[in-house]
Amino acid sequence: MRLEQFYYLLSLKQTKSMNTSAEILHISQQAISSAIKSLEKELGAQLLIRTVKGVQLTECGYYACECGEKIVDALDILKKNVTENQSCILRKPLTIMIHSSFALYSNNLIVSLYNTFPDYELNTITCQNHVMLRKIIAHDADLALCYTFKQGLKDIQQAGLYYQKIETFQYGVLINSNSPLSQYDSIPLAEVVKRYPIMIFNDLESDNNSVNELLQKHNLQHLAKYAAVNITSMRHMLENDLAVAMGPQNTYFKAMEKAAQGIDCKFIPFSETELFYCVLFANPQLDRSIIKRFKNILKQMTI
Asked: Angle CA(160)–CA(128)–CA(132) in degrees, nearest 5?
């Protein structure tokens, strides 16, 4: 059986004329007649009664039309659903990794990614830098939004990876304005580590991780002392010049400064220390429109 046989039969049910159906369907009467005879042979039943006035359906013909209508309706639904969901069926996979700090302080980032890449089967992973590098090198992810210091950019290139800078932040310390160190416009990291414990927010591992990375870079981790805090104890320690907070002067640090409002404190950058936010990828053939769309999201957000 062929689908067009049922289309011809349904047309004949409406027109009751071989000639009229042939004109509507833009085929010859002979083609319609041959198709119906072939269908009758396959079903083993007469479907039409041919007269000089036209054609009439037999009882089997009406039943065949009823079945044919169900087939045609089912095909119409299939075509509609395939058309509506074609983008889902044809979507390519796209895995984007996001450093934990972005997920924490840019609440709309994940939602924006899904809205920006509806034509991809998007998978987002929130993780730390070392996980990102491992997955990018293994081609388990397409690109990553990460942070790194200047040496990290060199390490990325030496690993055969590619990056594009998004934004650069000063990395520094939030310190009591009465501290002897507050007189400096920029301050050596070693001086801060020798004099003060570093406040650590236990629930913000992402930014604590950047502190650890910086200390290791300057070989100062053995000198560092830490003070686990929440917002209330942070205010107490800053106000009494008992500890300092470290980090990039981004949304996270601005939130800390806001939490410390009313306390006489200031942000002082470390000497020659900047933090770079980058899009990282391993495949040089990666569609540049993906990176462009990704960067456009970040330009519209405060990170």
From this structure: 30
Total residues belonging to the chain: 303
Q: pLDDT at position 155, please?
A: 85
Q: Are strands 120-127 and 92-99 parallel, antiparallel or unpaired?
A: parallel
- Please check whether residue 72 is in contact with residue 10, taking contact to mean a CB–CB distance below 8 angstroms: yes
Task: Indicate the residue type of 293.
Answer: R
DSSP 245-299: EEEETTHHHHHHHHHTTTS-EEEEEEEEEEEEEEEEES-TTS-HHHHHHHHHHHH
Any residues with CB less than 8 A from the CB of 103 and at least 6 apart, and which? 109, 110, 126
> Is the separation of the CB atoms in 147 and 249 below 8 Å?
no
Taken in order of first residue, the domains within the chain and their CATH numbers are 3-84 (1.10.10.10), 92-299 (3.40.190.10)
Residue 142 is predicted with a pLDDT of 94
State both tokens at 21.
Answer: 């159906």
The token pair at 224 is 């560092």
Tell me: pLDDT of 204 over 50: no
> How far is it, in rounded angstroms, from Cα 117 to Cα 57?
53
* Strand ranges (E), the chain: 48-51, 54-57, 92-99, 120-127, 143-148, 162-176, 198-201, 226-229, 245-248, 265-281
